[in-house]
Amino acid sequence: MSGTLFTLTFAVAAPFWALMILLPRWSRTLRIIRSPLIVLPVVAIYAMLVLPALGAVLPAVLSPTLDGVRDLLGTADGTAAAWAHLIAFDLFVGRWAWLDSRERGVPPLVMAPVLVLTILLGPLGLAGYLAVRTRWPRPPGASASAPEPLG
C-alpha cells in the first residue's frame, strides 16, 4: 500500500502546481488556489501512513536521534510518509508564494521557475521567493495575508 500512496501523493498535488505555473492568469486558478484546503488530499495520505504507525513515529519525533529517524525513514511506509510530508509543505509554501506574488504584481514568468524550484527543492524555492519578493513591495492597501520578512 505504501508504494501506491507514494505514487498518489504527487499525483494529487500536481494539478495545483500546474494551475499556478501554466495557467496563472486563468480566473479559476485564483479561486482554487486561494483555498488552503488544496493540501488536504496530501494530508489525508500522510495521515493514512502515519496514524497506523504512531507508536513508532512518536518516539522518533519526540526525542529524535539520527539513527532513530534513519530507521524510521528507511522503511517503505516511512519513506512514503516523509514524501507526503514534503509534498504537503511544499504545496502550502508554493501556494503562499503564488498568492503573495499576485498581490505584489510579480510577473508569472518570474514566478514559474521559483515554483518549479519549490516543487523540486522546497526550502531553496522558499529562499528564492523571499529574494524575489524584495523587488516587488506590497502595494499600498494590499491585504497583509503574507508576512513581511524580518530585518
Taking all residues together, what is the mean pLDDT?
A: 91
Number of helices: 8
Strand content: under 5%
- The percent range for helix content is over 70%
Measured between the Cα atoms of the first and last residue, the distance is: 46 Å
- Class inferred from helices and paired strands: mainly alpha
Rounded to an integer in angstroms, the radius of gyration calculated over CA atoms is 17 Å
How do the SSEs run, as a string of H and E? HHHHHHHH
Poorly predicted runs are 146-151
Number of strands: 0
Please give the largest β-sheet: none
**Shape descriptor:** elongated
Q: Please indicate the count of domains.
A: 1
Give the helix/strand layout.
Layout: H1 2-22, H2 27-33, H3 40-50, H4 54-62, H5 66-73, H6 76-104, H7 108-120, H8 122-133
What does this structure look like?
The chain is an all-alpha fold and 151 residues long. The chain has one domain (2-133). Helix content is 73%, strand content 0%. The longest helix is centred in the middle third of the chain and has 29 residues, at 76-104. The termini are far apart. Residues 146-151 have low confidence and may be disordered.
Describe the structure using short key phrases.
151 residues; mainly alpha; elongated
Question: What is this structure, in a nutshell?
Answer:
This protein has eight helices and no strands.
